[in-house]
Amino acid sequence: MALSTAQFEFTRPQALTLTAGVLQLAFGWLDLFALNPNYRVVQLGVGVMGIVMAWRLDTARMYGLVLLLGFGILAFSLENITTEGFLGVRTALVGLVITLARPAKRAPG
Question: What sections of the protein cross the membrane (predicted)?
């Protein structure tokens, strides 16, 4: 289902990107997981980037790809299991979902 008007269409990948961006921003701001301060800054930046990139389908997909590759590499480079490593895997999976999500077909009009 795409939210649309005559000028504006909001697809599933864009909605997922906006949601992921808002949640990353909230988790970074509220520090729910008692994270390293440097990782919180990364979460804040990724959250803002998601909110900004949600407005176009191609940039929303690019955001998903950046999450998948960036946080996937981060998760595999850590030597021990930490909260940041778990959050990195979670964020990489969110990026995979955003990248693979299909925009809705147009409703018959």
Answer: 62-81
